[in-house]
Write a structure and sequence with these properties.
The chain is α+β, with helices and mostly antiparallel strands and about 130 residues long. The protein contains 2 helices and 5 strands. The protein has a 5-stranded antiparallel sheet with strand order 2-1-3-4-5, with no helix packed on it.
C-alpha cells in the first residue's frame, strides 16, 4: 500500500473489513483544494469498510463541518479538534459502534513542536478489528 502523499494533504485509503483488500486510495489538498471530493468519498464508504486517514502538512483548513461529522461517524474523536498543521492518524470503520482506539492526535504548538512549525511524528500500531459487512 503506497501512501506517499502530495505536498499538502489528508490521505485516506479504504479497505474491505472482511479481507483487508484495498478498495480505494485518495489524497485531498485541505489547504488550497476543495473539500467536496473528500465528502463524496466519505459518503460512498460502504458498511464494513475500514478507513485509514493520515495528515501530511496541513489537514484542516478546508475541512468543513460536514466532512468532520462524516469522519466522526467512522469513529474519530479528534477530528472535531483538528486544526492547522496538526498531526493526526486514524483507523476507523463504517458501521463501527464505538469510537476508535486507533487514533492519535498531536496539536501544532510552536512552543512544543519538534520541527519548527510542525509537531513530532506520530504512529499507531495494533490489530484492526473486523467491522460488520
Amino acid at each position: 500500500l503506497n501512501l506517499n502523499p502530495p505536498k499538502v494533504s489528508l490521505t485516506s485509503p479504504s479497505l474491505t473489513g472482511k479481507t483487508g483488500d484495498v478498495v480505494k486510495t485518495a489524497h485531498f489538498d485541505m489547504y488550497s483544494g476543495d473539500v467536496k471530493p473528500l465528502v463524496e468519498l466519505l459518503k460512498s464508504i460502504e458498511t464494513g469498510a475500514v478507513v485509514l486517514m493520515a495528515s501530511y502538512d496541513e489537514p484542516a483548513t478546508k475541512l468543513n463541518e460536514e466532512a468532520r461529522k462524516l469522519i466522526a461517524e467512522l469513529g474519530s474523536v479528534s477530528v472535531k479538534s483538528l486544526g492547522f498543521r496538526d498531526n493526526w492518524v486514524f483507523v476507523g470503520g463504517k458501521g463501527a459502534s464505538v469510537h476508535s482506539n486507533f487514533e492519535k492526535y498531536l496539536k501544532n504548538d510552536n512552543a512544543k513542536n519538534k520541527y519548527e512549525n510542525w509537531p513530532e511524528l506520530i504512529e499507531i500500531q495494533g490489530c484492526i478489528p473486523k467491522y460488520p459487512e
